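User: Fold this; tokens only.

Assistant: Input:
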Amino acid sequence: MAYAKRWCNYDQCCEFAPRSWNQIYCVECRCKRKVENERKRADEVASFEQPREYVTLKIPRARDGYKVLIINDTQIPFQDVKTLNAVEKFWGDFRPNLELYNGDIMDFYSISNFDKNPSRRFRFQDEVDVTYKWLFSRCAANPGARRILVEGNHEDRIRRWLWKYGQDMSGLRALELENLL
């Protein structure tokens, strides 16, 4: 199965044809090795997780006709279904070249610090599954698009929760956002 070309997630160094649906680093520039080495250095430098760094994403100058769609604050699974359906219809007609998921895509309700409505009880895994299914459906609907996920304050809830309640698990790569979704 051939997968649509995408930009390297490490530093946007090049566009490549992934070998699997979840390959996010190019092989040519050895970006995965660079990421692994950075993680090792970070572990050696500090015995605790550093606060998230804010970086500027490199989006190359777009040619005429290059279409960008920015979506944010869906807060799945509490999305406004009617509004999101209308946005998805526009999305399908628009067929953007770049889809920018600009934070708060998933609500992370079950691990938030706010008081929780008992009628909304569900597991964290349920939130992840619903969000993953929606993101996968967006990839299937527009397979040729480049995608960028920018973490918002809701996505940051997992890091804060781990710092507060699961210090021993806070370094697990499996719990990083790009591995969950």
